[in-house]
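ok trying this again, last paste got cut off
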Amino acid sequence: MRSVIQRVSKASVTINGNKVSEINSGLLILLGIEEADDQNDIEWLTKKIANLRIFNDENGVMNKSLLDENGDAIVVSQFTLHASTKKGNRPSYIYAAKPEIAIPLYEQFIAQLELQLNKKVRTGQFGADMKVALINDGPVTIILDSKQKE
């Protein structure tokens, strides 16, 4: 699993002109799922996201986690995070999981993150054409990969 984590002061997801999710201070999580992903990837990634110390403390030092801040989260599926650009100029998505594999893992990821955070996690809609708006706070953007544990 790959994710791009963005610390935001505001984020929202709109589908067909309807705003389906919105948060204030927290994290926008773009999530890419590959065929080889499983429960171990979900557990590692959700724990890392919940505890990643990327929020400022009282001294302006990134020393607090999403849990510490009681911040919100939006998870947006994004198969393009597994794009391979090695050959040519047209990305290949051969490593991105097919919907029949990806959807259950996406749903399990959301459920596990909700357990980690002890609160509801907002989402986009898997496979939909989404418009994602955000105000990146910092900016702070972190890339995590469960296979490489970084």
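PB: full thing came through this time. The longest strand covers residues 130-145.
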